[in-house]
Amino acid sequence: MESIRLSHNISQFLEEKSHGELQGEALNQLIKIGVLANQGKQQTLQRWQPTAIYLKEKIPAYDFVIIPLNFAQVSEAVAAGEVDFLITNSGMYVELEALYGINRLATLKVRRSGGTRTLFGGVIFTRSDRTDINNLENLKGKNFAAVAENSLGGWRMAWREIQEAGINPYRDFLSLDFYGSHDLVVEVVQAGVVDGGTVSTDTLERMIGAGKLDLKDLKIINQQASSPEEFPFVISTRLYPEWPLAVVAHTSKEMAAQVTIALLQLPADSYAAIAADSAGWTIPLNYQPVHECFQALRVKPYQDFGKISFHYDLAIKGSKVGLWDWNLETGEIFFSESWQQMLDLDFGDSLTTSTTWFERIHPEDINRIQLALQEYQAGIRQDFEVESRLLYRDGSYRWTLCRAKLMRDIYQRPYRLAGSHVDITSRKETEEKLQRSELQLRQQTQQLATALDELQSTQVQLVHTEKMATLGQLVAGLGHEINNPINFIHGNLSYAQQYVGDLVTLVQLYQSAYPRPTPEINEFLENTETDFVVKDLQDVVDSMRLGVDRILGIISALRNFSYLDRGEMQPTDLHASLDTTIMLLNHRLQGNNNSLGKIEVIKNYGKLPLVNCLSGQINQVFMNLLSNAIDALDERSNKQLAQQLTPQPNTFGSLNNLVNDPQFRSRKLQNFSETRQIIISTALEAGFVTIRIVDNGVGIPLEAKQQLFEPFFTTKSIGKGTGIGLSISRQIIVEKHHGQIECHSQPGVGTEFVIQIPCDISLNSLNQLTRTI
Asked: Would you give the distance in Å from CA 583 to the centre of its chain?
């Protein structure tokens, strides 16, 4: 009757879905995912429906629906084949695994206290002022609180530890009460209503974070040692795996593989993961510790563990788990009928010795299995759990998971090894598909990353090439246009000087020959101060000549600076290149466009040889670094000036009035006398020419230094930098000249760029290296 009622409820639920969320969708095969609704039906749908939507997107040929099930309905749905997959707690999973042969495919990565965990445990505690309770044995005869009798983290984990301490809580506790809430258990222990209690790990940390608890008020009993990196919560028990996703026996292997791969690829930041309060899924963990806990406690499905009964034999046959019991003293092994059924053997076949077993192990696995057995018997391994391939009657090999428990006598000599075999071929095939998928994904990711790097490098090169070509054309055009009239002026200045001299001489001759000028001439001489004009005229002509010479020098420097190397190395005087760059930046160094003052350039030039290099591109490096140094100095000065111009409260009135007051601004600027410096040092060190450019500017933040040489990264405001200057500089120095460029900076102190270029490499070798790069 219960199965009929459950089937009716699921049918009714799907009918409601078909008129709601499923309306308008294609009539694909419907895949039903049962979920333990321990927090209610509506909350379960809100938490897991996004996962069904995600699976639909990844596997569009199927429709997925979430079926919320209460504790009683979960077993009924699996037994009746009403669901294809199941998401449930660890305790219920091992029960259904033993009873109906469901198989784990993945384990949930739960978000807990700022991190993700796949394991959890229990914590046992009392009040810190209870000096009479210091260990598990002290709990005997005390009042104890837990969450629920069937709760793994809220009772059964602690029960196992208490039982191993020699206490039967149902007999030896003064009282044992279940409060149904982790927080309530903590509260009744705090209030002294009971002597001790147990809750799931992270409960105490969560309550501390919410301000409901101070850990100093509690004492942890049987606390286990663990580092915060391994497990960041206080814990009193063993660790057990989180909720699994399991596949029901009737579900096809192909569907199980597709769902597993899709969930393992679920991004941690996806809506489906966040809604499930998780960071996605990971490969299935080992749930044998939960089996062992239930076996030790003899709770369902191990309530008759250790007893041979008709009902237990039926359960084992239905679980599709093969059991074996090996007498190490005689070498005889008992194999259950289910073990023989797994191998598709007749019951009459002789399977009574370990030789029979080992003969069926795949040749590639036999040495690994024997070594594992030897290590386990010698105590090197704490647990025995290995995977291997066994030979079936049809000649095929199938993967099996073997678990075992060793028994020793009072002299610690092993005498018996008993365990189980579970067919895990489907899971191994899924894992192999997943590994191939992950490998393909990594390869594609690497290819995309390489393509992106190449694209960025090409983009930077194109931008730089276009910029330099435009600059070269502009400089060449301007130089040509300016050069002609300047040369005309320069060439005629000597003639003008000669003509003026002749005219002055003529005037002087007239003055000598006619010492008595007419009244009109006397008046003109008095008005024009002729004597001063004659004296100053030569100085004016000389100043004009100096100005023209400077203009010609600037034009020549621009041509040299923007010269396109065309891939040819040439011996270069790096000091001359630095001086040319400084001359071109002279207008910024003088501070003509602002009130920040002059920048002092200190040259500590060493003795350098001519260096084979691409001189035009080296000039670009010097220009980029010196321009950045000037920007850093201006930024620091502007910040300091803004601080000085900030008035004290209730002293000078409004800030706008003070900033616009010429006397106030002049007074402040006079006090602003900090030296602004750029120091350029050169030296020959171990076959390398080293150039150091140091400024006492604003400095570079640590987080920005890591991206300093990346294309299109800039610390400047929008419109003041493209982010390719330092990237191009690195390519020129490292890739084209086989050198090095480094940056050392401290915010608020300054920045140093260090360039090293090899000077002992031959011209032909360097050209060849440049073409190779």
From this structure: 46
C-alpha torsion angle, residues 154, 157, 158, 163 (rounded to 10): 140
Two tokens, residue 460:
């930077």
DSSP state of 156: I
SS3 state at 755? strand
Q: Which residues of the chain have pLDDT under 70?
A: 1-27, 227-229, 304-320, 338-356, 409-411, 453-484, 486-488, 490-492, 548-550, 552-567, 591-596, 644-674, 707, 711-725, 760-773
Q: DSSP secondary structure string, 626-658?
A: HHHHHHHHHHHHHHHHHHHTSPPTTTS--HHHH
- By residue count, the chain amounts to 773
- pTM above threshold 0.90: no
Contacts of 104 (CB under 8 A, 6+ apart): 93, 97, 244, 245, 246, 284, 285, 287, 427
Q: Kindly state the tokens that stand for 268.
A: 């941690």
Contact 551, 486 (CB under 8 A): yes
Q: Decide: residue 179, CB within 10 A, 0-12 exposed, 13-18 middle, 19+ buried.
A: buried
Q: Using alpha carbons, list the distances in angstroms from residue 52 to 17, 45, 47, 455, 488.
A: 13, 10, 10, 38, 84
749 and 696 Cβ atoms separated by less than 8 Å? yes
Residue 324's DSSP bridge partners are 335, 419
What does the angle CA 250 – CA 253 – CA 257 come to, to the nearest 5 degrees? 130
Tally: H helices and E strands in the chain: 26, 26
